[in-house]
Amino acid sequence: MSDVVILGAGMHPFGRLDKSYEELGAEAAAAALRDAGVAWSQIQAAYLSRMYLPATSGARILRRLGSTDISIVDIEAACASGGAALRQAVLAVRSGEIDLALVLGCEKMPRGFMDPSMIYSPWQIELGMSLNPAYWSMRARRHMHDYGTTELQIAKVAYKNHKNSVHNPFSMYRKEFALEEILHSPLVCDPVRRLEICAPDDGAAAVVIASAGRARRHAANARAVNIAACCHTIARYSADFRCPADSMSATANNPGPTEVTAKQAYERAGMGPEDIHCFEVQDTDAFCEIEIYESLGLCALGEGGRLIDEGRTEIGGAKPVNMSGGLISKGEPVGASHLGQVVEIVSQLRGAAGPRQVANAKVGLAHVLGAGGNCAVTILQR
Amino acid sequence: MASDGAVRERAPIRDGLLSGSLSQLDGVRLTGCKCTSCGETSLGKKSVCPNCGRDTVHEAPLSDRGVLWSFTVVRHRPPGAYMGPEPFRPFGLGLVELPDGLRVLSPIQCEVDKLKIGLELRFKPYLRHDAERDVVAFAFEPVDKGGSHV
């Protein structure tokens, strides 16, 4: 069993919001503290996950909760920033140095495609290689070629996630789209369409974590969720073709970042994909979710399309994925996305997810994957 | 070419990416880094192999022929200082598999409805006339252009 638990969780709805990042972050942090029944003054270390915010954003946000002299650090690992931050907090608590920590994910991003100078070299930008969806699309095209995955299957993922989001008050869009509407939305980068990709936006999510011993001193322990695993890795040589890659090996055969990170997490938790009841995964684009079914071991390589056809990843299916509506519906405030997934899983495991509830969910997994092959997998258990 | 007849300076789009004399475009190739320890070839000049971390690498010009491994059509102007044709028009972007054992990301110069996996391509260095100098940039184009050319 795990030695570190989530004592409280909270978030601010994702969206394009008329609030500063300090306000968003402070609201999410306060919600998590409230849920945990813990005062800010009791927190012994705090970690901010963010990618697009200025230096010392963690301290700037959290000073709104009151003066403190604890360690507050900002952590960045592209789309996996939240997993990297949570992992650092878990390691600190597991070390025994501290027993109560706050992990906050917060982001405020401009509309439209992300600022390419963050990750691309000038020559890549000049040649037109700076559109992130282009990389996702080339993966999709090759998967379609190798395994017969169809545009209809990809659209079905987007349909499912948009539909799920209608019941999520933390989601940006909360709008169901007809399959036809998705299939006729404009192409962004063939074969990926506008209603099949996530948009950058604003948002914040937070958890209070504690050692199991410390948690027993708090009333919220009755609703605590164990952190069975929290792993973060980056892709080995040529194991992943994702922005800002300029080439890949045609001969190396390293396992992909999701396979590697999930394997670590499954081993740490002493579980396999068959033991997990619900999943929140990186649906940067709808195809990506199909690929992740395969790399998380929900099905064999090449069979991801069949999983969506059979409805197995719907809320009522055997392996529900992205009950929250996923990033396609919530948007991707990069630093906040993984913590947002964790908040959803906590809600599911507590049986508090309302119309999105997966029946008898006791174990859940959250997965993020992004630039540089950064990947994080967190497994929670109640 | 510059029309005033003056000799303009030529520079590669990035140092360490191209081999051959820039004054003879026909001889320009992409350059690679080949490791004699692990056998991997990667794009661009490097002092250490990005796969095994050893310094047993040497620069090797890459083949100018390849096959389209996957592709997309970029339908929106990419963000940042994109320097493609104006006004912007959708273009192919693909991973070109070279016989050297790697796949290189490159714009593909052809009508976008001609793009398909397996398309045979050749390297096409070209001059981009910037304000202060000519920049040698690159794309790939179909070996058989079939009478159409963008």
Structure description:
- The complex is a heterodimer of chains A (382) and B (150).
- Chain A has 382 residues and is an alpha/beta fold.
- In chain A, helix 3 packs across helix 13 and helix 6 packs across helix 10.
- The longest helix of chain A is centred in the N-terminal third of the chain and has 16 residues.
- Chain A starts with a strand and ends with a strand.
- With 150 residues, chain B is mainly β.
- Helix content of chain B is 0%, strand content 43%.
- A six-stranded mixed β-sheet of chain B has the order 1-10-9-6-7-8, with no helix packed on it. In chain B, strands 2, 3, 4 and 5 form a four-stranded antiparallel β-sheet that branches.
- In chain B, a hairpin with a 4-residue loop joins strand 9 and strand 10.
- The two termini of chain B are 19 Å apart.
- At the A-B interface, helix 4, helix 5, strand 5 and strand 9 of A face strand 4, strand 6, strand 7, strand 8 and strand 10 of B.
